[in-house]
């Protein structure tokens, strides 16, 4: 068996061409230019790199971007004021608060302050609740990107047993909800899960989202499984050990070049959707 490589980099590039055309059509029809506002608090170099990658993606598809850099000393109240200003700005279609923020800031409070129609990164409690209930909402960007990748490669989800390792509010939990909504049977594992290797061995689909390099061992994963690695660590390794997997599993994501590009692509795509919705609202008000 030779695994299908779930190439997120190639898919994101292809989808960017479609997004570029859609942005142009939106503006040609009198709609808004989609503008993504990014908020970076502090001077963490990794976070700065991620923000720049998102700004670059906006530029490639013809979207506008606005980057707000705030010092590490910013308070929760000051950050909330910035978010409120962006909520009120009719030119801004999407708001991204780069995670993580400094420890003294109440990140959840700030996430939830983002207007639901501008929550293109899918981080608000309201957005998660709507998505989990199968209602219209922007999904958390990384899980949404993974779902797009799986759909593109015709990975069967209905009836399959998916094991998600990780329970963060912006990755593990929404990933599990999206898989459940796609009719998979879902097991969520975390730091206190017992018999972890045995649970992973039962999985038709394994999603690594623990944030620890190669915590999930290749030997745990059964032949023919689909392996999705949402981690990225120094040295180009993910959350899942890949030794020998290409010859045993049905499909797997590379690290890098798998999930990461699709995360950014989902964010950009949802910003476009927000702009399209605003364009429809603008037209109806004018009428």
Tell me about this structure.
Helix 2 (45-61) links the parallel strand 2 (35-41) and strand 3 (64-70). The protein folds into two domains: 30-117, 3-Layer(aba) Sandwich (Rossmann fold), CATH 3.40.50.10860; 141-259, 3-Layer(aba) Sandwich (Rossmann fold). The longest helix is centred in the C-terminal third of the chain and has 28 residues, at 259-286. It has helices at 8-28, 45-61, 76-88, 107-112, 125-132, 141-152, 172-181, 196-201, 259-286; strands spanning 4-5, 35-41, 64-70, 94-97, 161-165, 185-189, 205-208, 226-229, 251-252. Helix 2 crosses helix 9. The protein is globular and about 50 Å long. The strands form two sheets. The protein has a six-stranded parallel β-sheet with strand order 1-9-8-7-5-6. It has 287 residues and is of the alpha/beta class.
Would you kindly provide a brief summary of this structure?
By secondary structure, this protein is an alpha/beta fold.
Sketch the topology as an H/E string, one letter per element. EHEHEHEHHHEHEHEEEH
Amount of beta strand: 5-15%
Q: Portion of residues in helices?
A: 40-55%
Tell me about the largest β-sheet: 6 strands, parallel
Distance between the termini: 59 Å
CATH superfamily of the largest domain: NAD(P)-binding Rossmann-like Domain
Alpha carbon gyration radius? 19 Å
Low-confidence stretches: 281-287
Strand order of the largest sheet: 1-9-8-7-5-6
Oligomerization: single chain
> Looking at CATH, which topology of the largest domain would you report?
Rossmann fold
Structural class: alpha/beta
Binding site for NADP(+): 166-168
Catalytic activity: (6R)-5,10-methenyltetrahydrofolate + H2O = (6R)-10-formyltetrahydrofolate + H(+); (6R)-5,10-methylene-5,6,7,8-tetrahydrofolate + NADP(+) = (6R)-5,10-methenyltetrahydrofolate + NADPH
Keywords: Amino-acid biosynthesis, Histidine biosynthesis, Hydrolase, Methionine biosynthesis, Multifunctional enzyme, NADP, One-carbon metabolism, Oxidoreductase, Purine biosynthesis
Subunit structure: Homodimer.
């Amino acid at each position: 068996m030779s695994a299908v490589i779930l190439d997120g980099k190639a898919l994101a590039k292809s989808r960017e061409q479609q997004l570029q055309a859609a942005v142009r059509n939106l503006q040609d029809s009198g709609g808004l230019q989609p503008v993504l506002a990014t908020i970076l608090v502090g001077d963490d170099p990794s976070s700065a790199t991620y923000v720049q990658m998102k700004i670059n993606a906006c530029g490639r598809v013809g979207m506008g971007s606005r980057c707000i850099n705030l010092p590490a000393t910013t308070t929760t109240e000051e950050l909330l004021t910035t978010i409120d200003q962006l909520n009120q700005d009719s030119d801004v279609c999407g708001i991204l608060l780069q995670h993580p923020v400094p420890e003294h800031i109440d990140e959840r409070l700030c996430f939830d302050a983002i207007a639901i129609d501008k929550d293109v990164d899918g981080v608000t409690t309201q957005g998660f609740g709507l998505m989990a209930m199968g209602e219209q909402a922007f999904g958390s960007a990384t899980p949404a990107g993974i779902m797009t990748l799986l759909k593109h490669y015709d990975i069967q989800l209905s009836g399959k047993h998916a094991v998600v390792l990780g329970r963060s509010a912006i990755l593990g939990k929404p990933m599990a909800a999206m898989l459940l909504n796609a009719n998979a049977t879902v097991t969520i594992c975390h730091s206190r899960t017992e018999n972890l290797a045995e649970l992973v061995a039962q999985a038709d689909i394994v999603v690594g989202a623990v944030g620890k390099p190669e915590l999930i061992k290749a030997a745990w994963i059964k032949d023919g499984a689909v392996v999705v690695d949402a981690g990225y660590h120094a040295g180009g390794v993910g959350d899942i050990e890949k030794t020998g997997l290409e010859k045993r599993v049905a499909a797997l994501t590379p690290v890098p070049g798998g999930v990461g590009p699709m995360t950014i692509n989902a964010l950009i795509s949802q910003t476009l959707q927000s702009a399209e919705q605003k364009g429809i609202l603008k037209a109806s008000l004018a009428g």
